[in-house]
Write a structure and sequence with these properties.
Length: 160
């Protein structure tokens, strides 16, 4: 298991992901604990990209419940269809929001958040959680983030 992370200094976002993904694979290799793996993924993404907040919400009892994350304290529970996270869960698709203030029903867990990306996590064709990342910058996230974060989400093993 790799416990060191090599931060890529490149300003090219795609290069950063291409360097980070094999390192995340190494972190996950041989580890079966879901919470440990989600925690390491959140930490690796936060370290590489310096986003305001990155973490996971898991579906429990009909709502999203806060899971492992890096960043300031966060909303603990989110209803299906509410905010960006609840909408990504309900729609089962990645949502890229360049300006959170323009998103109807945005839940402001942090007033510093300006843009957001949320990706559904699938297990047996059902959404079982979401990966959420927030930035202090407008239009931080784009199709490149969606492409590579979807690859990272696909690495998560929910079988234990």
């Amino acid at each position: 298991m790799a416990e060191d992370l090599t931060i890529t200094q490149s300003t090219d976002k795609e290069e950063q992901y291409k360097s980070l993904i094999p390192q995340i694979e190494a972190l996950l290799d041989g580890e079966t604990d879901l919470v440990a793996n989600l925690a390491n993924i959140a930490a690796a993404l936060k370290e590489q990209f310096k986003w305001l907040w990155v973490g996971f919400y898991m579906v429990k009892g009909g709502e999203l419940v806060l899971g492992p994350f890096q960043g300031p304290v966060a909303c603990t529970r989110i209803a299906k269809g509410k905010g960006v996270c609840g909408s990504a869960w309900e729609q089962g698709k990645t949502l890229v929001v360049p300006d959170v203030d323009a998103f109807p029903g945005h839940i402001a867990c942090s007033s510093a958040s300006r843009s957001e990306i949320v990706l559904p996590l699938f297990y047996n064709n059902e959404v079982v959680g979401v990966l959420d990342a927030d930035s202090e910058n407008l239009a931080q996230f784009d199709g490149i983030d969606a492409k590579y974060l979807e690859q990272i989400c696909a690495l998560i093993n929910f079988n234990g």
